[in-house]
Amino acid sequence: MTTDIRSQPRPLRVINSVAPIRICDNGGWTDTWFAGYGRIFNIGVYPYAEVQIQVYPYRRQKDRIVIHAENFGERYAVRPEKKWDRHPLIEAAIEYMKVPKTVAFEVTIFSEAPAGGSTGTSASVSVALIGALDRLTPGRLTPHEVALVAQRIETEMLKQQCGIQDQLCAAYGGINYIEMFNYPHASVSPIQVSNSIWWELERRLVLVYLGKSHSSSQVHEMVIRELENAGPDCPKLKPLRETAPRSRDAVYAGDFKALGKAMIDNTEAQRRLNERLISSDADAIIDIAREYGALGWKVNGAGGEGGSITILCGDLSFRKRAMIKAIEAANPLFKSIPLYLSRHGLRVWER
Hints:
The protein has helices at about 90-95, 120-135, 145-155, 165-170, 195-205, 220-230, 240-255, 255-275, 280-290, 315-330; strands at about 15-25, 40-55, 65-70, 75, 105-110, 175-180, 185-190, 205-210, 295-300, 310, 335, 340, 345-350. The strands form 2 sheets. Strands 1, 2, 3, 4, 5, 6, 7, 12 and 13 form a 9-stranded mixed β-sheet that branches.
């Protein structure tokens, strides 16, 4: 009796799914339980998170479910007696989805986005994985429902601090205006613009990875403790909420100067939450961006050490390219990540 599902002649089905990552999350921190309500603007971009599931008949293999975490060079069987021990988000999602025990499968997960880049990559992986696993269960989840499930797994099963915007951006893609009216319930309004505005925004955006992974830190825990005691109407949250509708209106108008100003104001509002949310590396990149005439910059995610920053450049492409060269020359760890705006959110298909 085999213990390796790959020894089967051919998979019965191959299910594919992808979901974009998130940048430029103006209004972030207001999509959390302690904010109560919030307004968030964000942009879904490629490179995306990619999931592929090979489905085999179950023939009492010992290794019925196998995870191939390609970016980490790991391939291992899920063991029920070892509760979410290696990649908890992936393993918890598989458990939550309750795939029928009549099938065996191997799930491969890959992304060209750097891990810990503050671009919601883990949420994109979770959304893509749940969307793919949904093909193996009765019924179908809508993309919005997939986002809610992904967020529920992170907060309820894994007991982690987590907002709602990353999962929603992964599910919807594109440019989004999100109104969270009562955590975690929210409406998502995709921002539809002309091709010329879409293409111009895409041309102007730059994503810079700071060269080290972002992770929740004591700084974030301290900020959360302060905000959770301050209530939804905390004065420090108000300027963050205000940047989201300003960003929405600027994109509709094709007013890139106004969008850049909203990005800067959001970053400074993050700094006022705690000055360490804007790292010295981020400030070094901001100084270079300013020197080359960038219109705006947004430290992605909650901020802190590591992660990434989104830059909105000016009119001239050669200055954008010169800026990227200057940033990468300033620190060997800094790296520009090529990006494209996503026309779609979660996509699932099979052959």
